[in-house]
Structure formats: C-alpha cells, structure tokens
UniProtKB/TrEMBL annotation:
A Pfam short name: P-II
Phosphoprotein as UniProt keyword: yes
Sites of O-UMP-tyrosine modification: 51
Matching Gene3D superfamilies: 3.30.70.120
Entry keywords, A to Z: Nucleotide-binding, Phosphoprotein
SUPFAM superfamilies linked: GlnB-like
GO cellular component terms given for this protein: cytosol
Superkingdom of the organism of origin: Bacteria
Keyword Cytoplasm among record annotations: no
Organism of this sequence: Marinobacterium halophilum
Family: Belongs to the P(II) protein family.
Protein name per Swiss-Prot or TrEMBL: Nitrogen regulatory protein P-II family
Length: 112
C-alpha cells in the first residue's frame, strides 16, 4: 500500500478530484496549505504599498491506495494538475504499513 501526497494549485483541485474518481479512487483527503519552492513567493500591491507574499496558497491531496494503482494515480494527478508554469506542485509517494477502517475493523487493502 502507498500514501500519495500531491501539492497542487488550488484551481486545479476539481479537475484532479474528477480524474481520480474516473480511475476508481473513492477516498481523498484535501487540506489547504501554504508554501514556496523555486517560485519563492511574489510581490503584491495593496493600497499603494508593495509587500512580499512569501507563502503561496496551495492544496494538498492525500490518497491511500493499493500498490497496483500507483502508476494510474500519479499519471492522473500529473496530467490534470499540469499548467506548464512554475509552481504546478509536487507528488510524494510513501509506503503505508497499515490501514484500519475504524467502523468495521477491516485492515490492509480491504480498509481502503
């Protein structure tokens, strides 16, 4: 089992969610986050004064999947979140040791 975390631009969330749903992913966790990478923030103008926005708003998507779905999930996220511009985001893949469904007590891939 794997845990796939993707940090993407907020306006791409609906497209990514729909793409994941189309390949059979049933559960997704979404968190609003802030961060920066090579983009290093940007300068904005507010009431005539310039100020630097260091942390840019992003969305973090987390999906717990069985190993055989990994390539499909990565492809779905990377294709739909891609704008071709800086700041499109990153995908992280981590091993997942155990999953337990609280309601039924199911464990492993059955709990996904």
């Amino acid at each position: 089992m794997k845990l796939v975390s993707a940090v993407i631009k907020p306006f791409k969330l609906d497209d990514v969610r729909e793409a994941l749903s189309d390949i059979g992913i049933q559960g997704v966790t979404v968190t609003e986050v802030k961060g920066f990478g090579r983009q290093k923030g940007h300068t904005e103008l507010y009431r005539g004064a310039e100020y630097v926005v260091d942390f840019l708003p992003k969305v973090k998507i987390e999906v717990a999947i069985d190993d055989d779905m990994l390539d499909q999930v990565i492809e779905a996220i990377s294709k739909t979140a891609n704008t071709g511009k800086i700041g499109d985001g990153k995908i992280f893949v981590m091993p997942l040791e155990q999953v337990i469904r609280i309601r039924t007590g199911e464990t492993g891939p059955d709990a996904l």
